[in-house]
Predict the 3D structure of the following.
Amino acid sequence: MSTPHNAPNARNNVLIAAACAVFVAAMVGAAYAAVPLYNWFCRTTGFAGTPQIAATAPNHVVERQLKIRFDANVAGGLPWKFEPEQNSIKARIGEVVSVEYRVINQSARDTVGIASYNVSPPTAGAYFSKINCFCFTEQRLRSGEQREMTVVFFVDPAILKDSEQDDLDAITLSYTMYPVRQPEAPQPQSAASAPPPRS
C-alpha cells in the first residue's frame, strides 16, 4: 500500500518527465528550423559570402572597376566536367554582367546535379547581387550532354558607402555542383516471382 507522502513524489516525477519531453521536442524542432533560418539570414544579409538576389538592375553605373573571378567545382560522386567560359572579367560597379558556365555529363547514364554558390571575400556577399542564376535548380543531363548555363549579376553601388570595401579590387564567384540522388525505378516483376494466377 502506498503511503500518502509518496503521492507528491509521483506527481513531481510525472511533471519532470513531461518537462524533459517538451524540452527534447523543442530541441528537435530547433534543429530542423536552424538550416532554413540560417539560409534565410545569409541570403538577407550576405553573411558568409552569400550573394543577394535582385529583381532589377541598379539605376546608375560608376567608373570604378572590380575584377570578378569565376570558379567551378564538382563534388564527389558526380561525373561532370564543370567550368566557366572565362576565368575572370573586369566589371564596373553597378554594371549588369552575363557570364556562362559550361557543364558536360561524362558518364554513360543520365545524372542530376544541383549548384550552390558563394562569393569571396565573404564581406562582399552583401553587395554581389544576382538577377538570374542556375543555382539551386536541378540540372538533369543525358549521357554525354553538354549545357550552357547563364548567371546575370552586378555589384551594388552601395558598396561605395562601405569604407571597409575601399581597398577591394577583386571578388570571386564560386559554384559547386553536387549530385542529386534519384529514386530508383521500380523493377519489373519476373515470371518466377510473380504470384500464380487465380483459378
Q: What stands out?
A: Residues 171 and 192 are 62 Å apart (CA to CA). The radius of gyration is 27 Å. The chain has two domains: 11-45, 52-179.
